[in-house]
Amino acid sequence: MKVITRTNYVKNLFLLGLILFSTAPLFAQSTEDNETKPKFSFSGSVDAYYRTNLSTTDRSETDVEGNVVSPVPAPATSFADQTGFALGMANLLFTYENQRVGAVADVVFGPRGDDAVAGNNLNQLYVFVNVSENTRLTLGRFNTYLGYEVIAPEGNFNYSTSYLFSNGPFSHVGLKADFAFSSDLSLMIAIMNVTDTDTNLGGAYSVGAQVGYSDQFLNFYYDGGEGLGFELDYTGGFDLSDRLYLGLNAAYENNDGDSFTGAALYPQFTASEHFAIGLRGEYFSTHVNGDSDDPSVFAATLTGSYTIDNFIVKPEIRLDSWHNDTPFLDHGADPSKSLSSILLAAIYSF
């Protein structure tokens, strides 16, 4: 009886050892698969706002001579340019990635998205390859590397956008290479279609570059005058204290004598876990054939930001004041150099 018991015991040990030995590679493979399994993620945002003008009416009126007078409803900047209750956009971002390759599809719907992508709903669409730990190649349509602000509203502190952002490119279609030389130093070089152009029927291309050091970026774009022309742009910022941050943006663009220059400061103060307040002060000037008397504008935008989980409420007041131009109307329907407005925006990100 003991012999039989011992034999069965040894047999069982042998079978258990065989099972463990044969399944060990499976466990190892399963662990390895979990570590290298491609990752799919889905994120995005939805936003809407209410906006009204303080220095002029929001609607068309009739002057003393019976003529219909339509005031300019908003500054000549991108987005947030409607009055009354208005829609921003729905932004849906799909990302698929493993250790070496991946793809991104960024789809937008709504007025803000239409203005950014000319109505084709594709904000970004690209594939990428991690050639090495510090080198990535990207091919397709990607948002611009120029400027301080971005298209998606949750990426900006201010809800309305600046003149610098609105006059630069939104997106590029082409091939870029990103190099990370250290945690501080980076380089990007790119060859692309002319800015904001998905196809290339004319045979013209553009080149771009970005040098980054400690979150300070010097950006370059050139297309030989086929679109934007030439642009040099600096974007960065500094933590002045634990609660106070100062963002910076300056740019110069020239296309065969037609040019713009501008600079913007973005001081932002974090008052608590849920509330912050920020000011954008911007000077922007346009020049036609180098004429120094061309219009310039100073715009000041004060924005509050109250956050509850993924929900952000942004009250904002903005003043735009032009020199050598009267693009607005006052309450008497007379030409005016300035426009003041307020808005309340709501953004939900997921």
Largest β-sheet summary? 16 strands, antiparallel, barrel
CATH homologous superfamily placement of the largest domain: Porin
The CATH architecture of the largest domain can be given as Beta Barrel
Low-confidence stretches: 1-34
Helix content range of the residues, please? 10-25%
Number of helices: 3
How widely separated are the two ends?
Answer: 68 Å
**Number of DSSP E strands:** 20
**Percent of residues in β-strands:** over 45%
**Main sheet: which strands, in order across?**
1-4-5-6-7-8-9-10-11-12-13-14-15-16-17-20
Protein name: Outer membrane beta-barrel protein
InterPro entries: BBP2
Pfam families: BBP2
Keywords: Signal
Brief write-up:
This protein is mainly beta and 350 residues long.
Structural topology:
Blueprint: H1 2-36, E1 39-53, E2 61-62, E3 68-69, E4 84-97, E5 101-109, H2 111-117, E6 122-132, E7 135-143, H3 163-167, E8 171-180, E9 185-193, E10 205-213, E11 216-222, E12 230-239, E13 244-255, E14 258-270, E15 275-287, E16 296-308, E17 311-323, E18 328-329, E19 335-336, E20 338-349
Antiparallel strand pairs: 1-4, 1-20, 2-3, 4-5, 5-6, 6-7, 7-8, 8-9, 9-10, 10-11, 11-12, 12-13, 13-14, 14-15, 15-16, 16-17, 17-20, 18-19
Protein name: Outer membrane beta-barrel protein
Organism: Pricia mediterranea
Pfam family, one: BBP2
Descriptive overview:
The chain is mainly β and 350 residues long. It folds into two domains: 1-37; 38-349, Porin (Beta Barrel), CATH 2.40.160. Helices cover 13% and strands 53% of the residues. The protein has three helices and 20 strands. It has helices at residues 2-36, 111-117, 163-167, and strands at residues 39-53, 61-62, 68-69, 84-97, 101-109, 122-132, 135-143, 171-180, 185-193, 205-213, 216-222, 230-239, 244-255, 258-270, 275-287, 296-308, 311-323, 328-329, 335-336, 338-349. Strands 1-4-5-6-7-8-9-10-11-12-13-14-15-16-17-20 form a 16-stranded antiparallel beta barrel. The protein is globular. Residues 1-34 have low confidence and may be disordered. This is Outer membrane beta-barrel protein.
